[in-house]
Each structure stands twice: as structure tokens, then as C-alpha cells.
Specification:
Elements: H1 3-17, E1 22-25, E2 28-35, E3 38-45, H2 49-58, E4 66-71, H3 75-81, E5 86-97, E6 111-117, E7 120-127, E8 130-140, E9 143-151, H4 160-174, E10 179-184, H5 189-194, E11 198-207
Parallel strand pairs: 3-4, 9-10
Antiparallel strand pairs: 1-2, 2-3, 4-11, 5-10, 5-11, 6-7, 7-8, 8-9
Length: about 210
């Protein structure tokens, strides 16, 4: 359940972040992130959550640096079942048919800059002499994944995130992309819903426990 959507999101998310060293082990996607606080990410659906937990608990990474992302309809129950892994947060895997994406204009006096390539679209919004907001979309065949959408604190509540998403969506459509996925935080989810994105499944984010939490 949700396997295809999760796999599409993981492929695009990994491409967006430049995390190209990944493989499937026991129906778990193992992404070699390589960052000091996040060495590896184990991505799986609910039915393979135990296998992902086993991989995280038996690898050789320092405590707190092996992460899991599990597609589950009940994050609280799944988190309890995966102890001693540590609950971090709940996100939501979302999807949209890009031609149906709501359109929001770039608010004055801001301007949009589009860079990158057909496979990796970057959008930045500038205003008052500085970078105000940005986002990225990785394009794989006819699907895409939106990622790293953020607005600088001084420029929030001005419609910039909606404008970034609109620009990403319309640019992707111009490259014949029809569908897109993203992982939404609790703060970002209302915005994406207002633009037409639908929730596919909650995502449990967990990790091996830090020494101080044991």
C-alpha cells in the first residue's frame, strides 16, 4: 500500500538532495545520506517497518544518525512498535496532478528567478535586495518531487511560498510533467492543501536514540 507513491517520492527527493547512493534491501530503500547527523535513511512502507528498524538498529553508524521514514496510517502505533527507535515527527506524503495546481502570482515588489535544468528546477524569489524564498523540484520522467521550499523569516506571510510552488508547478508542466509528490511538515501541509495537493499517507520520521535519551 502506497508503495508506488513512496518510491516515486524517494527517487525525486534523493535526486533533489544529491543523495544518489541508494539501494533496496529486504524491501527497504537504503539512502546513504552521509551527513554528520544523518548518515543513512531507511525508507519503507508499514509492512516493511520491522525490517527497516532492524537495519537501523544493527548498522555501524553512531547513535542518533540512522533515520527511518515509514509510510503508515497510524504513526503513533507504528512508533510504539519500533521502540527503542526514537520518534522525531510526523510528516505527510502528498500528491497532485500538476495541471490542476492552484495559481498564485508573485507578489509585488518581489521577482522570481528560475534556474537549473529540465531535471532539476530551482526557483528563487528576491525582494528588498535579498533572497526571500526558494524551492526546488526534481523531475523524473513524467513525475516530479517538490523539495526544500522555504521562506526567510522577514518575508513570511506575504504569499511567497505559494508563488514559489506555482512557479515550480508551471515550469514542470512546461516540461511535460503531469504529477508531483512532496513530503509536508505540519507547518507546510495547510499551504499545500490550499494549492490542491492531496494527502496520500502520513509519514513517521524516527531515528536511533541519542546517547542522552537512553
Amino acid at each position: 500500500m502506497h508503495d508506488e507513491a513512496l518510491n516515486r517520492w524517494q527517487r525525486g527527493w534523493s535526486a533533489s538532495r544529491g543523495w544518489n547512493d541508494w539501494q533496496c534491501v529486504d524491501d527497504v530503500t537504503v539512502v546513504r545520506v552521509g551527513e554528520p547527523q544523518r548518515r543513512v535513511e531507511y525508507v519503507a512502507t508499514q509492512q516493511h517497518a520491522a525490517a527497516a528498524a532492524h537495519l537501523a538498529l544493527t548498522d555501524c553508524n553512531p547513535a542518533g544518525t540512522s533515520w527511518l521514514l515509514i509510510a503508515t496510517d497510524d504513526p503513533a502505533r507504528t512508533s510504539a512498535e519500533l521502540r527503542p527507535l526514537e520518534y522525531v515527527r510526523t510528516e505527510w506524503l502528498m500528491s497532485i496532478s500538476l495541471p490542476h495546481h492552484a495559481l498564485r502570482p508573485v507578489p509585488a515588489p518581489y521577482t522570481a528567478e528560475i534556474t537549473g535544468s529540465p531535471s532539476l528546477i530551482d526557483v528563487r524569489m528576491y525582494g528588498y535586495g535579498e533572497l526571500a524564498a526558494e524551492g526546488r523540484m526534481a523531475v523524473l520522467h513524467t513525475g516530479a518531487v517538490a523539495d526544500m521550499v522555504q521562506t526567510q523569516p522577514a518575508h513570511r506571510r506575504r504569499g511567497l511560498a505559494s508563488a514559489v510552488m506555482t512557479t515550480l508547478a508551471t515550469t514542470a508542466v512546461s516540461h511535460n510533467v503531469s504529477t508531483a509528490h512532496l513530503s509536508a511538515s505540519p507547518e507546510g501541509r495547510p499551504l499545500y492543501k490550499s494549492l490542491g495537493w492531496r494527502t496520500v499517507t502520513p509519514l513517521l520520521v524516527a531515528r536511533t536514540s541519542l546517547p542522552s535519551s537512553r
